[in-house]
Amino acid sequence: MFDLTDPVFNPYASEEITPPHTREWAAKRKLARVLHQLNELAVTCNASVEEIEARTADLQVVADSLATAPRCLGTLAFVKTGDHGNYGQINHELNAVGGHSNPLAPGLNIWLEGAVAHGVARCHHAYEGPPGFVHGGYVAAIFDQFLGMAQIAGGRPGMTGSLSVRYLRPTPLDTDLTLRAEMAETVGRKTVMRGEMLAGGKVTATAEGLFIEPQRPLQTLAR
Ligand SMILES: CCCCCCCC(=O)SCCNC(=O)CCNC(=O)[C@H](O)C(C)(C)COP(=O)(O)OP(=O)(O)OC[C@H]1O[C@@H](n2cnc3c(N)ncnc32)[C@H](O)[C@@H]1OP(=O)(O)O
User: Fold this and answer.
1) Cα of 158 to ligand 1 centre, how many Å?
2) ipTM value greater than 0.95
3) Fewest beta carbons less than 10 Å away: which of 5, 116, 136, 153?
4) Which residues contact 217 (CB under 8 A, 6 or more apart)?
5) Is the CB of 20 under 6 A from ligand 1?
6) Please, where are the H alpha helices in the chain?
7) Which of 72, 87, 105 is at the close of a domain?
8) Nearest atom in ligand 1 to 157's CA
9) Of the candidates 100, 44, 34, which has an alpha carbon nearest to the alpha carbon of residue 66?
10) Which residues of the chain have pLDDT under 70?
């Protein structure tokens, strides 16, 4: 699924974001960036009603046009075509929290240095929960993806069985959030990961995740 020794595609080898491997994904990253910006503008812009209605009509034209193109519903549908890369490459683009071509993703970048996983994410105002701070569900989602990717270094990638987050102080919006995680223990198919999230050098939340290697390969679970 993810081969950390693959010299051609290992998105976690360094802090540098792995470039898109096809023109299609380069185009989709651009689309995602515009939509990500629109997400933030949708919750922050203070334009007139007329302006909002006019721009919404413009966007509806774009959405209706894209809706006429063929679609692939889910990563495995993209894999099946054979034209979009392997599962790891497609997941790297489309993942809900870490995908560079997914406008919902809060720009999570992950890299591994030996046994330690590092990451950075940034949540704009569409991720607001308490006033001025990141919604706790998004903090948990970032940990889920971050710890989930960090555990693949252990060689037995699993699905989240449980995730416990301790919210120590509110996590600020529009701030680089740095992440760090290490494997706490691994017993058979079960791996426990522990991590922390920092903003401005202060820990805002810690998390512990239990990941369980499924009995069947992950790619076959959807079938
Ligand atoms: C590389 C991919 C990384 C992906 C990271 C992204 C993070 C995600 O979002 S994953 C999505 C969220 N998670 C899920 O949807 C998982 C849904 N659950 C499942 O599919 C299954 O319950 C799964 C795979 C976790 C375990 O199923 P299965 O392998 O059949 O478990 P089973 O054989 O019954 O139990 C194995 C062991 O784990 C324990 N266990 C199982 N489920 C849990 C759980 N939820 N919490 C704690 N322990 C559990 C069992 O007690 C057992 O322990 P022991 O061996 O000591 O008796």
Assistant:
1) 7
2) no
3) 5
4) 1
5) no
6) 23-44, 49-66, 75-81, 87-94, 136-150
7) 105
8) 1
9) 34
10) 1-3, 7-8, 218-223
